[in-house]
Amino acid sequence: MLNSKIQKIIKKCSCEMALFESCTSEQKNVLKKQILKLEKGITKLNHWVREYEFASITYEIEFFKTVKPNLVSNYLYLNLLLRLLQEVPNIAFNDLTVYKKYSKEAYTFLKEENYFYNYLLNNDSCNDELYFRRLETTLNYYSPNHLFSDIKSTCSHGLLTAKIKAYEMWLIFCNNKIQTIKKQYLINQKSLDSSPLVWEAHKVDAIELVYALYFGGAVNVDKCTLQELATQFEKIFNIEICSQLYRDFLDIKRRKINSTRFLDKLADKLKYKIDQDFV
Predict the structure, then answer these.
(1) One Pfam family for this entry, by name (predicted)?
(2) With a threshold of 0.70, does the pTM exceed it?
(3) How far is CA 38 from the centre of its chain?
(4) Could you tell me if residue 142 is left (phi over 0), alpha (psi between -120 and 50 degrees) or otherwise beta?
């Protein structure tokens, strides 16, 4: 059973993680406050447990294997959500490639820690006394995960356990986002009014045109977002562009020569047609 002091500290800094499932830009300030709250709670927990004598080795292992990592994993996970809000512009929140990139990072981390990850997945306990007792007791300097840590308030694998738990939550979040975007695309496809028009240029050309229409003021942008304009474009021309809207725009921005080549090509063809008609 958890010590009442531990329970009190955890209760004070805990939150309903489901609140951040949608992870919208409007939540950024609330997210920061919760991260700070968790940070203070973890600091207080470390300070308190430093001088605490566990009733048994079993309780010590439970604390360092389950209790503390659960709290730290929430802290790390919320920081990953904050990173998303800070790195990704609003127009890219429905871009599949964003979440595929982040999920790949998580898979890479879990693969690198494959041995210990499987240890946790299989609920192994044969090395618990080595992994989840105070560093002061085990002197098990396994990895940089505890570098410069207080040996009385940390163990060798506690932070690694928390990281794994955080990346598992992060993978679930990213995969849910990917599935939601795909489902929305299918819904949009089914709701098409069977437009006879088909886009025959490249997808990146369509994206270049959508951005030009939106930021050129050719449409009433106060009534829609860039994503919504792209969705309408998809319906009219039977083309899928929303899932890579931001990624392809980055490719357009990186062009060293003629960043608006499709628009220039259209202008050239129109000028040629105008000149031909007046010959």
Answers:
(1) RteC
(2) yes
(3) 19
(4) alpha
